[in-house]
């Protein structure tokens, strides 16, 4: 195994295939990560607000979404989207692109975790501010938009950075459905030639290029948040789920 890792012939074959396999996969992983993160943020804000709403129905909807998504495997969810969603459009002849399936998969999955981050951030703001806003005639949405959410941004940034990091790593699950991501091309090239050591080592380095800056950013934001004089801000770290 060790000898094969340093085989010059195998590395030459990888370098020759790098523009055809690894570059498209790397770019696709970036596209899915960025678009999926945008979807996850939108869902996170919506369901995070639902979970702190005064209306019980919205809280119930939020809990159903969060509990179901967090307690089922991402691989199973992706396979369901891949198998079920195309059936809904089969009569029209419309085919859902693999890119869209990937974005839906990681977006919905991490949206559940981000909604918990948002919920905890909202709950960290003293309730007196919401009460004061209500006394001034602000609606719930106006209170969230103008007063509460802007204050939660600095509090929730560390766990949000961690969620972005986990989302990038979880895009690798899309290789199961030919998602054309980095892991898919790694599996394809490695299996075709049997050069698994070179294939997966190179893929690991490329994931590291994306994830290491996010990990450093998360650490920086975490240290910075320690200086924020907001009550309960540290509870976010305890409530954050590890999405692996």
TrEMBL record:
This is Amino acid ABC transporter permease. Belongs to the binding-protein-dependent transport system permease family. HisMQ subfamily. GO terms for biological process: amino acid transport. The chain crosses the membrane at residues 32-52, 167-185, 197-218. Keywords: Amino-acid transport, Cell membrane, Membrane, Transmembrane, Transmembrane helix, Transport. It comes from Lacrimispora amygdalina. It comes from the Bacteria. Residues 26-218 form the ABC transmembrane type-1 domain. InterPro entries: AA_ABC_transptr_permease_3TM, ArtM/GltK/GlnP/TcyL/YhdX-like, MetI-like, MetI-like_sf. It is a multi-pass membrane protein. Its main location: membrane. The keyword S-adenosyl-L-methionine does not apply. It is found in: Cell membrane. Coiled coil: none annotated. One of its GO terms (cellular component) is ATP-binding cassette (ABC) transporter complex. One of its GO terms (molecular function) is transmembrane transporter activity.
């Amino acid at each position: 195994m060790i000898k094969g890792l340093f085989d010059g012939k195998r590395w030459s074959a990888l370098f020759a295939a790098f523009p055809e396999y690894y570059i498209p996969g790397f770019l696709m992983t970036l596209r899915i990560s960025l678009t999926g993160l945008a979807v996850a943020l939108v869902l996170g804000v919506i369901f995070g607000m639902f979970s702190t709403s005064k209306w019980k129905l919205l809280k119930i909807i939020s809990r159903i979404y969060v509990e179901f998504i967090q307690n089922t495997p991402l691989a199973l969810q992706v396979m369901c989207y891949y198998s079920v969603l195309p059936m809904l459009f089969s009569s029209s002849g419309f085919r859902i692109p693999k890119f869209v399936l990937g974005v839906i998969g990681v977006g919905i999955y991490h949206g559940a975790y981000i909604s918990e981050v948002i919920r905890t951030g909202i709950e960290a703001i003293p309730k007196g501010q919401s009460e004061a806003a209500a006394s001034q005639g602000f609606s719930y949405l106006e209170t969230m938009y103008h007063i509460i959410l802007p204050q939660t941004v600095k509090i929730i940034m560390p766990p949000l950075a961690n969620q972005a990091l986990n989302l990038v790593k979880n895009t690798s699950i899309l290789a199961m459905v030919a998602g054309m991501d980095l892991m898919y091309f790694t599996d394809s090239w490695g299996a075709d030639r049997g050069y698994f050591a070179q294939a997966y080592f190179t893929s690991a380095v490329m994931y590291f290029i994306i994830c290491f800056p996010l990990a450093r950013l998360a650490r920086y934001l975490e240290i910075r948040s320690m200086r924020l004089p907001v009550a309960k801000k540290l509870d976010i770290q305890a409530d954050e789920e590890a999405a692996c």
